[in-house]
Each structure stands twice: as structure tokens, then as C-alpha cells.
Amino acid sequence: MLAKRAPPQRAHGAPNRVRIIGGQYRRRLLDFPDSAGLRPTPDRVRETLFNWLGQDLPGWTCLDLFAGSGALGFEAASRGAGRVVMIERDRAALDALEKNRVVLGAKQVDILRADALAWLANSREAFDLIFVDPPFDSDLAGPVLADLARHLKSGGQAYVEQGTAVIAPPGFIMHRSGRAGRSHFALLIKE
After folding, report:
1. pLDDT (tens digit per residue) in 150-167
2. How far is CA 83 from CA 36, 95, 103, in A?
3. Is the pTM of the predicted complex or chain greater than 0.70?
4. Domains of the chain by range and CATH?
5. Inter-axis angle of helices 91-104 and 71-78, to 10 degrees?
6. Contact criterion met (CB below 8 Å) for 132 and 65
7. What is the pLDDT of residues 15-57, one digit of tens each?
8. Cα(103)–Cα(78) distance, rounded to whole angstroms?
9. The dihedral formed by the CA atoms of 179, 164, 78 and 85, expressed in degrees to the nearest 10
10. In terms of Cα–Cα distance, which of 73, 68, 75 is closest to 91?
């Protein structure tokens, strides 16, 4: 029996499009491929997240693991992040990210083709904000959270979105959390 697939996300009636909701690229539409597990963070959840963060991220360094559609990373770039690193291993998603970076003129965005867990294991970089939004129902958030603290600057934050309730791992405090449909999301702060 084939598993039912979630309908593609829509922005302004168009399938596989998501819009930037704030900042320099506000209202710009991003195309993304139809891939299993790729569910961009909805507008309402991104709006909540950036309200929690204070709207603008001037000069911040951000990491978008499992970048997928790029909605979170491009939103951060739109709001003034100085550098956004997007990690994605799917070729179709990677091609769409590259295209969207060019269309937006987002020179502060670096896009890398890599497995998120392998990249984390080998990286020594530290960020102000890390987005952890793995393919839905993949259970990849757990292994990422176990290794996340060393990749955050002191007082750094991690946004986590997954199909189950988010539990703050050791070394983090739960700042805020919410739920939208089947998605649970939380903003964690490194202690």
C-alpha cells in the first residue's frame, strides 16, 4: 500500500511556492521541488518564530540544516543576517536553492551540498542561530540536537521543527514552543 503524500504547499495559489514574509525580500516567491518529506515552514509559524527572535537579525550568522525550500534561511537573509549557510543533500532542492539565491541576489547565502549529520560532525563553525527542520517524520532532529551545542555561540539559539513535541536537550533551555497542525516547533537557547 502506498503512503499518502501531503499535498504540495501553496503560496498565492501556486503549487510548490513559498513566500518570504518580512525584510528586504518581503513578498518574494520561492519555487521549490516536489520532494518526499519537504514541507516548508508555514507563513504563520515563520511569523511567530521571527516575532520571538525580534524580527531583524542584523549581522547574525545562521545555519539552515536540511534547507529544503530555503524558507527559513532566505527569511533570515531577508531580515539582515550577515551570513546564512544552507545545507542540503537533495539535488533538485539544491538546484532550486541556487536559483532562488540568484533571483533574490542573496550574496550572504552559502549553499552546500552535504548530509547534515556528516557536515555537523566535521564542522568547527559556531552560529548565532541554527534552524533544525529535517524532513517531516524523519526522526533526524534527535541526533542533530545531541551535537548542536558546540555549533552555537554563547547565548545562541536553535529553532527546531518536527512531528513530535520538542524536548530541550542538556545545555539548552526552552525559550518558546508552539504547535501548528502536526508540526511542533520550539526556540531553544544555549545555556
Report:
1. 999 999 999 999 888 999
2. 28, 20, 17
3. yes
4. 10-190 (3.40.50.150)
5. 20
6. yes
7. 688 889 989 999 988 888 776 656 777 778 889 999 999 989 9
8. 13
9. 170
10. 68
